[in-house]
């Protein structure tokens, strides 16, 4: 089984050639960008930041390179990130958005316990999860 782990973005790994599919392009406070590795291969990235006004972490960006999608890397990366945020302990909630119609993102986040808030920002559905 492939071992998924997260690493901070550094000068050595920040230009690792990852990119999302064209239809997945997206449009502060304390933030952290992380490279998602499968063993020693960079397969994606995640970015979160503190959203003080909502007393929540904002999972702002998550993507798995098109070459590595469908292998469970995104699910495991979000699980690890949720553990990291819970250990950080600043907030008890995580919020995120996904583009309406992106059924894969919806399934991923719902499987990890995120629920729609009822808010919509342009074409993005807002979700939240308690830690």
Model description:
There is one protein chain. The chain has 131 residues and is of the alpha+beta class. Helix content is 19%, strand content 41%. It has two helices and seven strands. It has a seven-stranded mixed β-sheet, with helices on one face. The protein starts with a strand and ends with a strand. The relative contact order is 0.17.
Key words describing this protein structure:
single chain; 131 residues; alpha+beta; 7 strands; globular
How far is the first residue's CA from the last residue's CA?
Answer: 27 Å
Proportion of strand residues: 35-45%
Class inferred from helices and paired strands: alpha+beta
- Shape designation: globular
Extended strand count: 7
Mean pLDDT: 91
Number of helices: 2
Radius of gyration from the alpha-carbon trace, in angstroms: 14 Å
Sketch the topology as an H/E string, one letter per element: EEEEHEHEE
Low-confidence blocks of residues: none
| Residues in helix, % | 10-25%
Which strand order do you get reading across the main beta sheet? Answer: 1-2-3-4-5-7-6
Biggest sheet features: 7 strands, mixed
């Amino acid at each position: 089984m492939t071992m998924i782990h997260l690493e901070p973005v550094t000068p050595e790994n920040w230009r690792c050639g990852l990119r999302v599919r064209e239809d997945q392009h997206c449009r502060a406070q304390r933030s952290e960008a992380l490279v998602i590795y499968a063993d020693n291969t960079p397969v994606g990235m995640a970015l979160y930041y503190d959203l003080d006004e909502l007393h929540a972490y904002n999972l702002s960006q998550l993507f798995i390179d098109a070459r590595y999608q469908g292998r469970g890397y995104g699910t495991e990366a979000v699980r690890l990130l949720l553990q990291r945020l819970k250990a950080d302990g600043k907030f008890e909630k995580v919020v995120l958005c996904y583009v309406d119609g992106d059924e894969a993102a919806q399934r991923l986040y719902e499987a990890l316990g995120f629920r729609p808030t009822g808010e919509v920002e342009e074409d993005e559905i807002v979700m939240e999860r308690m830690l």
